[in-house]
Amino acid sequence: MFEHIERVPGDAILGLIEAFKKDTNPQKVDLGVGVYRDTQGNTPVMRAVKEAEARLLKNETTKTYIGSHGSPSYGEVVLPMVFGAESPVLKANRASATQSPGGTGALRLAADFIATQLPGKGIWVSDPTWPNHHGIFTAAGIELHKYPYVDPDNRLDFDGMRAALKSIPEGDVVVLHACCHNPTGFDLSHDQWQEVLEIVRERKLLPLIDFAYQGFGEGLDEDAYGVRLLAENLDEAIITSSCSKNFGIYCERTGCLIMVAKDSEQMDNIRSQVAIVARENYSNPPAHGGAIVSEILHDAELTALWREELTEMRDRINTLRRDFVEALKPYGLDEKYACVAEQRGMFSYTGLTPEQVDRLRDEFGIYMVRSGRANVAGFSHENLPYLAKAIAAVND
Question: Where does the signal peptide begin and end (predicted)?
Fold first, then answer.
């Protein structure tokens, strides 16, 4: 029965990993894979995480299921992190948390909830967006549409985005990146978020806010501006949060689907439906990552240590952005690539063409996605001179 099954191309980023491993160039640079890296090129385990895991190992008494919504203690710390401790949304019991296998799992829960509870509604994603958005939503049977986000000059196209949002059919779902837009790094200003709020309210759209990189842009609270603005001023919203990145626990798959409803009674109805969606997907989420986050955020000392480490990672990335542009100044390319310093998060839409990306890989051993998206965490003060020289060469 399997004879008709055809081979399909592998994931582009996974292919980059294999090609990078085989490359013998001693100066090779990996800017493809979307994980944080330190100055040595490693993805370290945070000190706060190590300490939390040691405590968990010592005190753990069971490996039983944690329920379809996950551990209540995980929700207790994630909701205030997303909305703020004094959030009116939380005080009114308008939000609930469902622990999920990573932010990806939260997106799939959201997709299945939309497909079953809001049948016939389309979903709109930015162009470009994280490629897996396409797969997740179409796999759930939702009709996918795009709105503009970046113009041909590699700048945020807010005018195009605004015009497109105003034309979306009433009741459709619009996917918004809360911060550190993946793959571009272009984020909305406070004024632009206010305009989005007004359009979403006027068009009666349902916002689905992908919040995968809280703390990697400007700060934990600063990065939550758009999320909090919409949740506090709209009756309904969906938020997919991830702790995989800001706690550095990628392999633990630690995410959260957050539903915002008009009132607590409506939330109880929604929560019952989300439990069924989770049950049909994976029954119970993995427990360890959520337990790490809960252990850290329930302890003032560990919370302070984690915040310190997260600040170090964020500051390193933002410094590397500026230093990258500075390294291009001798080649007269600093203005052309100034956008890299303006963007936020781990990713940058550099503006490099697919042909230039190919040349960087083939001639210099520099690996990134052909869209020109680079993982800024792959920069280092050691490789920046080489990167600048190579980019100048392919700009000839």
Answer: none
